[in-house]
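Q: My labmate handed me this sequence with no annotations at all. I'd like to see what the chain might look like in three dimensions before we decide whether it's worth expressing. Could you predict it?
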Amino acid sequence: MSFVRKLRAWRAWVPLIWKNMGCMFVNMFTVILGSSLILYIFGDGDIPIVPNQHVAEVPTNIFQALVAFFSFSGDFISRRLAYDPPKWYPRKIMLASSRTGNPVRYLLLNIVGFGLCVSNIALLAPIGMFFIMFGNGSVYSTTTRLIDNHVENQYNLAAISVFLFIGDSGSYIASLVITPVLNLL
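A: Here is what I predict for the chain of 185 residues:
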C-alpha cells in the first residue's frame, strides 16, 4: 500500500492519536516560543540572577550554556521515562489509566515552563526550559509508544509523519508570533 493510500486511510489511525497530535502542536509552539524568547529577554551583557538586583550576575554565554544544558537534560531524561517508565515513576499522576501515557498532562509542564521562561527571572529560566523540554520528550515518547503498540504496522509511517507535521506546524506558527509576544512582554 502506498504512502498516499495510508494517509487516505486516516480513519484507521487518527482516532487513536488525535489527542497526541493536538498536544504536539501546543508542545512545539511552547518549545520554539520559549527558547526564542529567552534569547531576547536575557540577551545583552551580564545577566542579573534576579531582576533589578545586580548583586549576582552571570555572563550571557554562561547563561545560554546553562539553559542549553537544562534543555538537553529535560528532553534526554524524559524520553526514557515516558516511553518505558521504571517502577518508581509516578504512573498514577503521569500515565493515568492509559498504558501509553497522557500527553495532556505533560503539556502542564510545558505551560509552567513557559511561564518560568518569560518571568524575567534568570534563575528560573533554565528550570523553565527543563520543564518545557521534559514535556517535549514525554509527548514524543508517549506518542511513539502509542503508535508502536496500538496503530497497525502498515499505518505507522503515516501516523508518525502526520504527528510530526502537526508539531512542525506549531513550531512554525510560534516563530511567526515571537515579535508580537516579545512586544507584549
